[in-house]
Amino acid sequence: MTTSMQEYPKTWKKTFISLWLGCFITGLGFSMTMPFMPLYMETIDHFSNAQLNFYSGLAFSVTYLAQAIVSPYWGSLADRKGRKLMCLRASGVMTFTIALVGLAHNVWTIIILRLIQGAFSGYINNATAFMAGETPRQRSGSVMSNMMTATVSGNLLGPIFGGALAGAFGYRIPFFITGFLMAIAFLLTLFNTKEHFTPVPKREMKPMKELFAQVPNLKLIIVMFISTMTINASLLSISPIVSLLVKQLMHGQGNVSLVSGIIAAAPGFGTLLVAKKVGDLIDKIGPQKVLTVGMIASVIIFIPMFFVSSPLWLGILRFIFGIANAALMPAVQTVITVNVPPEAFGRIFSYNQSFQASGGVIGPLLGSSVSSIFGYQAVFLFTALFIGVDLCLVMWARKISDK
């Protein structure tokens, strides 16, 4: 159920801060470890470039594949038991699975642990649904953007922090530290959040068909699901090969781990710079207009990435992409929040998470496959095309929703 800040001024603020910190830690932990996964795998065994591309892409994608499959189940459970329990489930399991990756001595052990992590993860999406249910709708845009700054801030600092740790102490240490940080997120969520939620008995839950029938513009929501998938795929298409691309651009010289971390974090700087203004803009002119402009800018920015010849220019362009990206996910989440019944937030957001997870499968596999065939930088052209197709869908959805 939706509450107002006037009803719960103190608990609302405490819950928001705790969930913000939990999302920050989750983003920090993920980005501390994932940009260096190919380099970590290289220390475990000897692989050809094609094998390394395949295994690193699989390690990225298998987590999101598991998420896509199980998210509807967790969403249904969230609507019956609450989103707080789902946040605890995700942070608790991730505490152990991420730490155990640091102990792995076989690439398949890493992949299996990543599969388990994906099946039980979803902290950020459930925290977002948690806050969506606690936030007045007239504040949805700014709150969704502020929640996004948590993840972005973590993604921003994680690669730099992880790169420094990996360079100084080896690739295993960031996994252990991430596990410890996720334990902190678990405790913050357990003791510092309060959910104003009335459990719905399973026999009283409306079927999804009936809930979807209550949505005024179902086609718009479906397009938002597809947009979520596209946005996440575009963000993660370079993830499996970012360190390998940087290594190529640097000709194998210098601190590749640290530079890879900075390149991976560059979009976060841009997003963090404008996130608050974008949130206010969403509330002022509407999320669909902001989403359209952000997608157009993203397509334009990806094209020159194909021609970069130095890490510096790659970092600058990814920074600019981060500015455009600040408009994307908060706008999509705001469209969903204001167009679905509150009692269906858990299940609707779980479907959205499934599409987001599907993007997590498509993006890394796209990146690893395209890079194996056409080279690392060709990934940017394929990503631009991917966003362009979705842009056409978004403009079509805007047209039918304005009627």
Automatic annotation (TrEMBL):
Could you name the Gene Ontology cellular component terms for this entry?
plasma membrane
Report the PANTHER family cross-referenced here: MULTIDRUG RESISTANCE PROTEIN MDTG
Keyword field contains Transmembrane helix: yes
| Alphabetized GO MF terms | transmembrane transporter activity
Name the source's superkingdom.
Bacteria
Q: What Gene3D superfamilies does this protein's entry cite?
A: MFS general substrate transporter like domains
Task: Tell me which UniProt keywords the record has, alphabetically.
Answer: Cell membrane, Membrane, Transmembrane, Transmembrane helix, Transport
Look up and give the organism this protein is from.
Ligilactobacillus hayakitensis DSM 18933 = JCM 14209
Pfam families on file: MFS_1
Q: Where in the cell is it found?
A: Cell membrane
Task: Note the topology in the membrane.
Answer: Multi-pass membrane protein
Tell me where in this chain the Major facilitator superfamily (MFS) profile domain is found. Answer: 15-402
What is this protein's name? Multidrug resistance efflux pump
Q: Where are the transmembrane segments?
A: 15-34, 54-74, 86-105, 144-167, 173-191, 211-236, 256-275, 296-321, 374-397
PROSITE patterns given for it? MFS
